[in-house]
Design a protein that fits this description.
alpha+beta, 6-stranded antiparallel barrel, 3-stranded mixed sheet, globular
């Protein structure tokens, strides 16, 4: 039975009642509102209330499941799980233009139109045609002013134009990103950190089981979901599908890059790049020496819906319906696999989607007319919400 913590009002009432009961035998009645004894009783109640509050706080931090802040970090550290820091976005192809032979010094500052800053990684000397290419790294803001770490804000699509902070003679101040500026991620939020920590407590390392690979992948900044597939590319291989939910520049959370193995893998046929490359390189020193690990992006499987009966619903309601369906796909989604004895096929039940829609206010009387069957993603496919038509 849970302990019922008394409220401040209850403590004050108890103290006053105790004072009055002790004094009543000496001919003293009820305490006056501003009497010294009533003030002492209320002060004592306030101190007791603070003590109860601190005991509540201690109880909260006493288990990994409810711990917060530095206590959560301490519990996680016991399992060698550490909060993912903010990471800076990078771009390997920034186009400079100007007079041939001019040099832009490494470390030069560049700025986006919204004020976000980057630095040039190394010197860039313009070729005979007056062009040159260089790499940049985002400047992370001070966590004291941006508690998210500001890593995700540094991501930007190809074609983004940056400006040199300090003009260089003979060099155009506008610099264009030929490739997307990617790889930036915010500080891991507390609930995601807690989920990884609890996974480590619940599943002790088994020398390379599925959970080990999943945990290693989730330790990479920006990676929010991971699924392990045994023998994805044949005997001796391990496949990992990854997602980057909520990271800007990643439509529907799908990673940006090409699937493959780590660049450190000897005689590898296909080297992963982008997000997949970051994960593959991070896993290389951790996984079993006999395994060849392939890091892949799931294939997008858009699922279209036709809903009747609520055509006149407000845009707010329709947006809530989409969000509810998205949440079902997020919770139940899994890349399709080859059915086996220990790996049943992936099925997303329509009943779960209907229940989610029904929970949205303003959807009473709706009918889901399409799809008509449960959703079964194909090999490597991950279901996402497509078009929603209202009839």
């Amino acid at each position: 039975m849970p302990f019922a913590r008394p409220t401040l009002s209850e403590l004050r009432t108890r103290n006053v009642a105790f004072m009055e009961s002790e004094l009543r035998g000496n001919g003293v009645g009820s305490l006056l509102r501003f009497s010294n004894l009533r003030i002492l009783a209320n002060a004592d109640a306030g101190m007791s209330h603070l003590h109860y509050g601190y005991l509540d706080y201690i109880a909260l931090q006493a288990t990994p499941f409810t711990a917060t802040d530095e206590w959560l970090a301490g519990w996680a550290a016991l399992k060698e799980v550490f909060r993912k820091p903010a990471t800076a976005a990078t771009c390997s192809a920034m186009a400079f233009a100007g007079t041939a032979g001019r040099t832009i010094t490494g470390g030069s500052a560049l700025r986006r139109s919204d004020g976000y800053g980057y630095t040039l990684d190394a010197d860039v000397t313009l070729d005979a045609d007056g062009t040159g290419a260089g790499t940049i790294t985002a400047i992370l803001p001070d966590p004291a002013t941006d508690i998210t770490g500001g890593g995700d804000a540094g991501n930007a699509p190809a074609g983004t134009i940056l400006s040199l902070d300090v003009a260089v003679a003979g060099v155009e101040s506008a610099v264009t990103a030929l490739d997307p500026i990617l790889g930036g991620a915010d500080i891991e939020n507390e609930e995601a950190f807690r989920a990884r920590m609890l996974l480590a407590w619940q599943d002790t390392a088994q020398g390379g089981n599925d959970t080990d690979y999943e945990r290693w992948a989730l330790e990479v900044p920006g990676i929010t979901r991971a699924w392990v597939v045994r023998r994805m590319m044949g005997f001796g291989t391990v496949g990992i599908y990854v997602m980057c939910d909520g990271v800007s520049g990643h439509p529907d959370g799908f990673p940006v890059g090409t699937s493959g193995v780590s660049r450190y893998e000897p005689e590898s046929a296909q080297v992963a790049t982008g997000d997949q490359g970051r994960v593959a390189d991070a896993l290389y020193p951790l996984h079993n020496v006999t395994a060849e690990v392939w890091v892949c992006s799931p294939s997008r499987l858009p699922v279209d819906f036709v809903i009747s009966g609520i055509k006149t619903a407000s845009n707010e309601t329709k947006n809530a319906v989409r969000a509810a369906i998205d949440q079902v796909f997020f919770n139940e989604g899994h890349p399709g696999v080859k059915p086996a004895v220990d790996t049943p096929p992936v099925i997303i039940n329509l009943s779960d989607i209907e229940l989610a829609i029904a929970s949205v206010p303003g959807t009473k009387g709706f009918l889901l007319t399409s799809p008509v069957d449960n959703i079964l993603p194909g090999l490597g496919e991950l279901a996402v919400t497509g078009e929603i038509d209202y009839l």
